[in-house]
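sanity check this:
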Amino acid sequence: MAKSLRIIMVVPEAPLPFGGAAARIYYTTQKGLVARGYQLTTFIAAATPQSRAEAERLFPQGAYDLRFFTPSSAPLGRGLRGKWRSIREPMSHQFDARFHAALASELRHGFDILHLEDLWTGYVGIKHRPKVLLNSHCLQAIDLQGERPASIKDRLLTSRSLHMEQKMLRLYKEQVTLTPELAAAIRLVNPKAHVDVIPLPLELDLYPYIADERRPLAKRLALIGSFQWAPTRSAARRLLTRLWPRIRALVPGAELELTGWGAQRVLSGYERLGQVTINDSVPDVRPYFERASVLLYAPEHASGMKVKVLECMALGVPVVTTPDGVEGLPTMPSSETSTEVPWAMLGASDDALVNAAVTLLNDPARQNRQRQAARQMLKTHCDPGRILDQYEAVYARIMEARGQ
């Protein structure tokens, strides 16, 4: 069946192994589906010159069929009409007229499944819903619970985004998502949807395990991620205002380092707390993983699988987090006290998180046991081959339901 299936995939960014959650899924599915014989064409809505060049190197034309687009400077029209549409249809600016025309032309040639990666790609599949599979990686209804937009414009945009998110989820019958928690939330919005759970794939060969002798001697707590994402902002504020002062008092000489896109803008002024370093928009984040003794990621609200938590585990950085931080991973307890699974230390309350961080910072042997267990867990749970098998099963079920 595989070789006869024609899959058109729409993704918001180029398929790269060290991009965001979405880019990693595309990287694995591009390689895997083509290797398994599928006829795959991928439309990439927003590619920078740098990401396009790297993707073309990894996926040479001829072996792969990638179509790259860069949104025009005024994709929704100018003036009041364009502004109104940007409010009425949040995130639709990713798909300008050129993108819609090129996709429509390709679809007219015939296809079996239109695979839409990321909820907002749902804008381009509305006319083809019986043949669409929509993958949502997170939900704003969960992620934005703690956010309080300051301006009237931001409040309006947030309200419209939440409304359109619900609308997209109700439109599509065949859906896939990363975690059982997300699947349950989607079914509440759309009880008629068939929602499969497929975890985020992770190619461990791309993540060299940090050897014991290369682990930092300093007791350095870290938070690494994109501070443009609400859950990471929430985790940073909680860490800086409620957790770090207590940890620093209990672990003399400890350091805190926060690294990622938008860090300086979101966290300006927090350096005054002492022993705090903030790094913004670094060209390569991997050295900052190697500098970290422990990652502490404690968002108030967060949906989906957390890429930086997974990367820490893959590289061998021990993790302290909340149950939300390990959503989608096996054996995820929920407790108000610190809870240890072999591959992470978990806590929901501030007391639990502080105790877990202090314990782990002071115990290198425990760090080593935990980081080894975490990498071993990922080998099974996020194995790309296993995850491609799951996508194939979903495709087969969709085709069978259509009588094909």
Remarks:
- The chain has two domains: 2-201+383-401, 205-381.
- The CA atoms of residues 170 and 189 lie 6 Å apart.
